[in-house]
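Case study.
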Amino acid sequence: MNKQLFDLLALQEVDMKIRALKARLTMLPNERAANEKRLAVVSAALKVKQDKLKATEVAIRNTESEIARLNDNVQKLQTNSALVKKNNEYQAMLAEIQHNKDKIGELETRLLGLMETVDAQRTEVREEEKQSAARIKSIKDELHELISFEKEIKEQGRALVAKSKEFATHVESSLLDRYTRLLRDSGSPIVKLDGEICTNCSFKVTPQTRNACHGGMIVNCDNCSHMLYSDNGNE
Ligand SMILES: [Zn+2]
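After joint prediction, the assembly is written out as follows.
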């Protein structure tokens, strides 16, 4: 293999690694966003249950204080009724006492229901907290891995770019220009000619191109313009 070809292939190997790293790097923000979304979903599911529990706890406190207020009322009415002289006023007070007691009875029934609900909700929240803690931990671990992976890729990329610049100085400038133009396209700029088939576009080259290539020249594919090399005759 001639030295120009050897240097060019060494440069291409480094440049292809850089291209692969760049492609990998562009996928990372999406992967990170997907993880952050999963994290938000897990936290939201827990919050829904926590909010329901809080609402029940508030309802319990409100019901308890309403019962206490009504009990106070009953006490006051009973104390006052002893001082009332007129019968109709006395009857009205008794009716009001009964009304308060009925209301207290209703609220106590409601309170029992709320107590059952709050027990069930506390169990659910504890269960959800346990499960979501495990999920959150695994998602956060993945996020940290992605961040260090990104750092690693960038470091590797910097080292490879330096290497590519150095390797490029070994390649003759007109050859490097041809190569650099092709590097902007997809695929490898310089590919092997397999018999008479270009391994970039899979098309047959002309006999003239094939002969030149097998004779050790760096030629371009007639179809895709990628640079071709051959192992035949270059050994
Ligand atoms: Zn081709």
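Observations recorded in class. The radius of gyration is 41 Å. The chain is about 75% helix and 5% strand. We will return to this complex in the next lecture.
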